[in-house]
Specification:
Elements (H helix, E strand, L loop, with lengths): L2 H13 L4 E8 L2 E7 L9 E2 L3 H15 L10 H4 L1 H4 L12 H5 L18 H7 L3 H6 L16 H14 L3 H10 L8 E5 L3 E6 L1 H12 L3 E2 L2 E2 L3 H7 L4 E2 L6 E2 L4 E2 L5 E5 L3 E6 L4 E7 L5 H17 L10 H15 L11 H6 L4 E2 L7 E9 L2 E8 L2 E8 L7 E2 L9 E8 L4 E8 L2 E10 L2 E7 L5 E7 L2
Parallel strand pairs: 17-19
Antiparallel strand pairs: 1-2, 1-13, 3-5, 4-5, 6-7, 8-9, 9-10, 11-12, 12-13, 14-15, 15-16, 16-17, 18-19, 19-20, 20-21, 21-22, 22-23
Length: 461
């Protein structure tokens, strides 16, 4: 690959301060380029967000290969009668496994709308029965006719695999996918009934891409059939995202190949034409999470991979690429300014928050000189996280059982006498919170990944 082009890519990431957490480029089976920004490195696992849907697609192929699922024409009701037999609309009973995988089930879904009470994803998260919340939605299109993004559908597929295999989805995944790929230390939280959260390192994500690039084999051993690799990555339907089509929980981008997509810019991109796998982990907001990965591929990576044979040695370009890789990995601490009087006032004070889309029940800051931390309360459990006031994140493992994230890290700064901004990494997923303190009251503004702002009014009374 052209090291000058790859150097240009890293220079752009650095100059534009793009929140690219990790980048791994594999060509012809070798890691050609690998770069990380603090606090990330090759060993820190990252939440892969909706790339989990693609993992479910891979597991579906394995289940079909093993005769556990009859195929994509299998009706959901034949495996999970409780999801459709009790609903009033008989047309829902014809929804197939293939309809779920291609997101053409026809059920109403608006999860790309603001994160409010009308959002179907929020409704599913708050429901005591996620599967019922999916199938209780009205059928607005005949199954198989129209694409609509719906994060509930992979949960249904996961339950179908559990029901037919008599294993939890995690056990099934470990036995038949991750252990064959030599991924043993897997951080997998949740289930199809509660929501799945998977964290992988970028190199482990690259293994998934390489498995498909090699048509279902890893280290010379068959993991999944080549027939499933081909059919699941074929374009089955157009999407509402310009220029992209959709396979079986795989996106088919206009620049070729296929890709797993996740919130914030997580990507596993496979380009068979150039024998190429590209992995991105990132903390991009909207619309950059959709546009920047495409820009990286079309402006830098694919042009760098145009050659079909060996390129002449380029020691200058290689040295620049290596220097830029080291530069991206360097932390950039900043001097901690004097804290405002409000810091002492709010330090140690517990604030309670009303119901909100992220399930944050309360918090308490602790300020002591140049050190700070925040205690977050989710589901009645507290987790204290160091907060870097010097522009640096400090990762810490999340200990209480049942929390979604395996690790968290935070950095923050006072932007006025009463206002504090917190950048939070939740197993790598990036979110921002603005705190406006007014005595015993506080307004917490949560900034979602798709540009939505949610004000939450809390107090310490």
């Amino acid at each position: 690959m052209d090291s000058t082009r790859l150097g240009d890519l890293l220079e752009q990431i650095d100059d534009r301060r793009l929140p690219i957490h990790g980048l791994v480029i594999v060509r012809n089976g070798a890691i050609v380029a690998e770069a990380y920004s603090p606090p990330f490195d090759e060993q820190l696992a990252h939440d892969i967000a909706s790339c989990e849907k693609t993992v479910v697609s891979v597991l579906t192929g394995i289940a079909i290969d093993r005769g556990l699922l009859a195929g994509v024409d299998l009706h959901v009701a034949d495996v999970l009668p409780e999801t459709s037999a009790s609903v009033s609309d008989p047309h829902k009973r014809v929804i197939t496994l293939g309809n779920l995988l291609t997101m053409t089930a026809g059920l109403a879904s608006n999860e790309w709308q603001p994160m409010d009470a009308d959002n179907t994803w929020v409704q599913m998260q708050r429901s005591a029965d996620r599967l019922k919340s999916v199938f209780d939605r009205p059928l607005i299109e005949p199954p198989g006719t129209a694409w609509s993004y719906d994060s509930g559908l992979p949960d249904v597929v996961g339950l179908m695999i559990e029901r037919t295999s008599s294993l939890s989805l995690k056990e099934f995944a470990l036995s038949f996918l991750f252990r064959p790929l030599q991924i043993d230390d897997l951080c997998w939280r949740g289930s199809p009934a509660t929501g799945i959260s998977i964290t992988l390192t970028p190199r482990e994500m690259a293994k998934l891409g390489s498995l498909f690039l090699d048509r279902g084999t890893w280290d010379g051993k068959r993991v999944i059939s080549s027939a499933w690799v081909a059919s699941s990555t074929a374009a089955h339907v157009d999407t509402r995202v310009e220029g992209n089509r959709y396979g079986n929980f795989w996106w088919i981008p206009p620049y070729g190949g296929y890709a797993a997509w996740g919130d914030g810019g997580q990507r596993i991109i496979v380009n068979p034409e150039r024998n190429l796998v590209v992995v991105l982990t990132a903390g991009l907001g909207y619309p950059e999470m959709d546009t920047v990965p495409d820009e990286i591929m079309t402006r830098y990576v694919l042009p760098a991979a145009e050659s079909r044979g060996r390129l002449p040695d380029n020691p200058v370009g290689l040295a620049r690429l290596q220097a830029l890789t080291r530069r991206l990995a360097q932390p950039h601490p900043e001097a901690v300014p004097p804290l405002p009087a409000t810091a002492a006032t709010v330090s140690g004070r517990a604030y309670t928050l009303p119901d909100n889309s992220i399930g944050l029940e309360g918090f308490a800051f602790h300020f002591a000189g140049q050190r700070a931390s925040i205690s977050l309360r989710f589901a009645g459990r507290l987790q204290e996280i160091p907060v870097g006031l010097d522009n640096l994140y400090r990762p810490t493992r999340v200990e209480p059982a049942g929390l979604t994230y395996g690790w968290m890290a935070a950095r923050g700064r006072w932007v006025s006498r009463t206002d504090f901004t917190l950048d939070l990494l939740m197993s790598g997923l990036a979110r921002r919170f603005d705190f406006a303190f007014d005595g015993v009251r506080v307004i917490v503004t949560y900034h979602g990944s798709r540009g939505e702002d949610e004000p939450i009014f809390g107090s310490s009374e």
